[in-house]
Design brief:
By secondary structure, the chain is of the alpha+beta class. The protein is 33% helix and 23% strand.
């Protein structure tokens, strides 16, 4: 039996030990554990990597603790605009959505774009029309309301400021979510979902739904899901950069992921992290910030749930 594995993240940023209450830390770890086990159970039953990453991200989207799905942050207009992408490393098929509202699980909509349309990326009103044509229930704003998110927005509302997932207030961390998996057939997949940045304007889109920037999967190399300063991850084409270093320079998964996060992205002023897996089930989870919500589980008996730097 081939080694299989799953890794997930809930965002990287200013996560400093001692600034989070013990109760909140317990809640975050419990949410990560739930998502990890849901995805891993699929792999254990010989399910596909694609199904596993979707299930794990669905779980993270369903909790208000993370900036995706139900926990999405407020835009400058007081709405919630969500982005997501999913990719199958077996055939390089991918699906993505951006600027969608009222969608409980954007990652599932992204998968439907991949499997039920001729396209890769749908955005805004068009993506919403596609969702409605496929029978999606459009949730009202109350479903996405969270008092912590609301107060975060109030702090910078009516200003020209915006707040990235990982920045500014040390108690104000809310993160993009993602998952990568390798199944028992040696196929890999990646999924990423986010609510963007607080007080964002003008239909801003980050790296999460952009194939090759925030999300990528190729059986020849790796599956990657990123989190961090989206504009820099787009400019660095980070997810694909990890794959390229493996394919063209022969670097290992850990070497390639480390080179991108600890050197290349920092050189252009970006910060954040990523999770990655290769077709042998190896996992890498580098980040250059103070912490990253992360967890992994493998078929060789290894499991870890972490928030801070070791």
């Amino acid at each position: 039996m081939k080694k299989f594995s799953l890794a997930i993240h809930g965002g990287a940023g200013t996560l400093v030990k001692g600034l989070m209450t013990a109760e909140l830390e317990t809640n975050y770890k419990a949410a990560l554990d739930t998502a990890l086990e849901k995805g891993y159970a699929i792999l254990e039953k010989r399910g596909s990597a694609l199904d596993a990453v979707e299930a794990a991200v669905n779980s993270l989207e369903d909790t208000p603790l993370f900036n995706a799905g139900r926990g999405s942050v407020f835009t400058a207009e007081g709405t919630h605009e969500m982005d997501a992408a999913i990719m199958d490393g077996k055939n390089l098929k991918a699906g993505a959505v951006s600027l969608v509202t009222g969608i409980k699980n954007p990652i599932t909509l992204a998968r439907d774009v991949m499997e039920k349309s001729y396209h890769v990326f749908l955005a805004g009103e068009g993506a919403m029309q596609f969702a409605k044509s496929n029978g999606y229930t459009i949730e009202d704003a109350a479903y996405f309301y969270d008092e912590v998110r609301y107060q975060q927005w109030q702090g910078i509302k009516d200003s020209t400021s915006f707040q990235l997932d990982h920045s500014v207030k040390k108690d104000g961390k809310f993160g993009t979510v993602g998952a990568v998996a390798c199944d028992q057939e040696g196929n890999i997949a990646a999924a990423t979902s986010t609510g963007g940045m607080t007080n964002k304007k003008w239909g801003r889109v980050g790296d999460s739904p952009i194939i090759g920037a925030g999300n990528y999967a190729n059986n020849k190399t790796c599956a990657v899901s990123c989190t961090g300063s989206g504009e820099f991850f787009i400019r660095g084409v980070v997810a694909y950069d990890v794959s390229c270093l493996m394919e063209y320079k022969g670097l290992s998964l850990q070497e390639a992921a480390s080179e991108v996060i600890y050197n290349r992205i920092l050189e252009i002023g970006g910060d954040g992290g990523l999770i990655a897996v290769d077709a042998k089930g190896n996992i890498a989870m580098p980040f250059n910030t103070e912490g990253m919500y992360r967890a992994f589980k493998t078929s060789v008996g290894k499991k870890e749930i972490s928030i801070y730097k070791d």
